[in-house]
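Deliverable D4.2, example record:
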Amino acid sequence: MYGGRAKGIDYDKIASAIFTQPPMGTCGLTEELAVPKYPNLDIFMDGHEGGMQPSIHTFSGSKEEMMFKILICADTGLVVGLHMVGKDSAEIMQGFAVAMQLGMTKQTLYDTVAIHPTSAEEFVCIPGIDMMDPVRTYRDGKLVEA
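Output generated by the structure prediction step:
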């Protein structure tokens, strides 16, 4: 089937979407699945408390809200999960799935120049993954209280 070559699938990096209103897109592990596998984990989020409007709506005046979540292994910087709720999330996740297959890290996100204004830029500019603190931190598999 694969030309005589062994081919495996990394199930931890499969992108998927739920076509609800608003749509949801995901790639990688959920927080619940990531903690046992990556006991030192940083969770970055925007929009989880509501009211987040991405840069794409700066000119349109749309009141549409979105949510973005990034899970990063604190030991290696590896991005182990991306999650988004909002317009075009399926399309955006498909692109980030390629980056995750190639070993995308927190530094990769920081080094990426965003297309502005877009929704996808929020993954590299929320408000700047280099400058924001995680909303949740796990160390040795346990949630660290702020």
